[in-house]
Every structure is written in C-alpha cells, then in structure tokens.
Amino acid sequence: MGRSVALRHAPHPIVLILTPADFSVTTPTPTSALFDWAASGNGQQINDLGQCAASLLPRDDEVVLVLPPRAVSWHRVALPKVASTRLRAALEGLLEDRLLADVNELHFALEPGGKSGQAVWVAVCQKTWLRSWLQILEGAGRPVTRIVPSMWPLVQSEAPVASAGASRSFELDIPSTIHWAHAESGQVWLGSSSVLGVSCTPLLEANSGAGGSASVAAITALMPPSPDALGESAEYDIWLADPSVATVAERILNQRFELVAQPQWLLRCSQSDWNLAQFDLSLSASARRGQRLRRSLRQWRSAPAWRPARWGLAALVGVQLVGLNAAAWHESSALQAKQQAVQQTLQQTFPQVTLVLDAPVQMQRELVRLQQTAGALSLGDLETLLGAIDQASGGDNLMPGTINYTPGDGRFAGWRATEDQVRALQQTLERAGWRVRFDGNELALSPPAP
In 3D, which of 243, 203, 199, 249 has the Cα closest to residue 225? Predict the structure, then answer.
C-alpha cells in the first residue's frame, strides 16, 4: 500500500535555476519579463530565491532554464535508423500530422539517451518563444547552459537499464502518476505525468455540488491515461502542490496534497537528465565539455555521494605531506651527521684547525701543507700538472711553449699541436677528474676538487 519516488542518481550541483514567471507565447518577449529563480550551491538545498528581470539575476557560471508544463508537449514515436544529421527531418515527418503548428516553427528534443532505431519520447515547444527567452538571458550576460522541462514522462524502475527512457532522474517502484498543483498566470493548474505521458489541466471551482462533480470529471478526463491500463491500481498516485494553491486544489479535487514549493520543484527539475538544448539550439562542443567539467567539479566538491572520496583524497594528501616531511627530516639528519663526521675527522687529524668553515677544502689545504713540509709533490705542484698532461697525451708530443704557474693553478699556451689535439687532451684530463678550461689559446689546469 506504499509508494516510493527515488532519485536515479546523486543530484548535480546547480548554481542558478530559473523559469519564466508567466507563460505566454507572445512574440517578441519583452526584455523586462520576469523570472522566478532559485540558487543552489550544492544541489541539495535552495540557498536563495526571488523574482526579477534578467538583468537583475545573480551572476553565476551555470544557468538552468526550466520550461513551464504548458510550454512543452510530449509525443511517443518510433525513430527510424537514420544518420544524426537527418534526425531532425525524420522527427518532422513523424510528427507533422500530430501537431497543429508548422513543424519549422517548433523545437524538438529527444529524451536522455534517445537514439534512432528506438521508441522515444519527443519534447516539442515553440521555437521562436524559446529562442526569445534564451536571447534575453544571453543579452543580460546570463547565457543558459541547460534547458529542462518542469514535467516529463516517468519510467518504471523495473524497466531494463538499456531501454529508452530508463536514464531519467525519477523512477517509480509501482506504475503511477505524479500530480503537481501550481499557480501560473493567475490560474491554478494541475500537471500530471506518468509512464504514458504528461498533461496540464486548469483547476476551476464550481459554485454547486453538481458543478463541482462535473469539474472533477472534466479534469480527470484531461489527465494522461491512468496506469490502470497496465493492470495496476491508481491508488499509488502521488499528489503534490505548491503551498500557495494547496487549499484550492484540495477543495476542488477532494484530495490531500503534499506541499512542495516552487523553488524545490525547480531544484528537482534541474536534477533530471533532460536537456532540451538540442539540434539548432544545442550548445557548441566546447561549451558542452566546459559545462560537463564544471558540473563534475561542483558535484565532486559538494555532492554527499563524493564525500568518502573527498575525505580519502584529503587523507592521502595528508599522509603524503607527513611522509615527505618525515623523509626530508631523515635526509637532513643524515646530512648533518655526515657533516659532523667530516668536521670531527678534520679536527682529529689536524688539531691546529679550530674554526671549521669548509671541512673538505680545509683538509685538502692541510694535506698540501704536509706534503710540502715533507718534500712530497702535491696535486697543485707544477711537476704534478705537467705529469698529468704527459699522461693524458698518450705518448704524443703535446707540450706547451709557455707556462704561467701559480700554486694550484697552471696556465699553458704556445702548444705545438693542433686545436683539435689540445681539445682532445682537455677531454682526457676532465675524465680523469682535473679541472680544465681551454679558450682556444690557453689551457688552464687545476687539481680535482676536494
């Protein structure tokens, strides 16, 4: 005896959701026309709402336009298998006999996931009317990123996932009808949607009891076919109403309604998979990619379904930071220990060194001093430099004609050899660890760095 209406997936975070305040196909639509709007930062709750002209709307990156129930008609067709470029022409041919207006003046949109070769729902609305609203918003600097209907045909939850229409945002465990009583253009309307279609019927009060019964009968006749046709009971119908018209709707239909304010209804519409921006009103490929990216980023940032992933990423980043800091501290400690060991070795080997500034350099100098005191050759002596040149020459007679020597540094010029031979000598000395510089005239040679 229960019913359930479930969201098919986690809602998309939406920034600004709006709908025309009055439904009218007057052309052109005045730029001062009002919008009912609601803003949501996380797709879960309304943060702000109001009614104003397009130029006064909040500025946000993503704008979702919700079309009133009476603005859209619904048609079930079996699409032939045609190329995507010919899909619009195929829809015109299929619907031309069902529609009262010229198909060239109408805008068509397929249900989410609808493809050629399937039976699909097609949404139809006045193209000029819709384009005028889009132009007003674009002119005010609030271009629409998505167009959604305020009511659409439902889908049974037991339907296979691959079947047409199974991707819509609301599913029913038991086939039934969702009714929504709302105010529009000073009139109370009852919108009804089921697996068999959508209708929008005016609720008119009668003065007498008999008249009231006739009114209810007329309203019932205008609703979409009851799911009784599918062998199920209509007692599972869902009755919802805007608080401003709930009392009137309950009095006319003698039916209890659950309260759903218009901003919440707009939020529910924005959570659907529908997007009527198709064919000549579709967004560019780059705009669609940017829209999907922004929606994905906002969903990841604020949707409850992604909360474990966000916590996991935060924990991973925290662990990485702790690990990097620990590794850096360990490396720093090891480096300090090595530096202290070198300093201790220097001071233990040469006790006369009391101030340690650069232990390796100071140790090299002390070794040179010891070698000079003992009469032994050091790496910086001229004899050692000449011996290194002779050894690197590999037996060739590569000796300089001019020598300019200072302790630890020799400069050799006047080579009796070609420049290529001297450069080959330079490379050999560098491979042996010597510090060599050759500018084309003079070769400077220094001992290896300590």
Answer: 199
| Pair (89, 146) in one structural domain | yes
Same domain, 341 and 382: no
Residue 395 domain boundaries = 378-446
pLDDT of residue 6: 35
CA distance to 112, 164, 168, 228, per residue, from 263 (Å) = 23, 29, 20, 32
Q: CA 268 from chain center: how many Å? A: 21
Hey, what's the torsion of the CAs at 27, 28, 34, 38, to 10 degrees? 80
- pTM across the whole model: 0.58
Q: Rounded distance, CA 7 to CA 442, Å?
A: 83
- Quick one: 214 and 143 in the same domain? yes
Side chain identity, residue 181? A
Which 3 state secondary structure label does DSSP give 354?
coil
In degrees and rounded to multiples of 5, residue 316 shows phi and psi of -65, -45
Higher-pLDDT residue of 11 and 179 is 179
Domain end position, chosen among 354, 376, 398:
376
The pLDDT of 92-108, averaged and rounded, is 89
d(CA 353, CA 2): 93
Asked whether the predicted pLDDT for residue 440 surpasses 80, the reply is no
DSSP for 290-332? HHHHHHHHHHHHH-GGGHHHHHHHHHHHHHHHHHHHHHHHHHH
Task: Read off the pLDDT of residues 105-140 as tens digits, 9 standing for 90 and up.
Answer: 999 999 988 888 888 999 999 998 999 999 899 888
Residue 205 has pLDDT above 80, yes or no: no
Query: Two tokens at 289?
Result: 């990619």
**Euclidean distance between CA atoms 310 and 11, whole angstroms:** 17
Task: Retrieve residue 360's tokens.
Answer: 């390796």
SS3 of the chain: helix, strand, coil, percent, to 5: 40, 20, 40
Tell me if 2 sits within 8 A of 254, measured CB to CB.
Answer: no
Q: How many domains does the chain have?
A: 3
- pLDDT at site 22: 80
Nearest to 15 by CA among 395, 366, 297, 283: 297
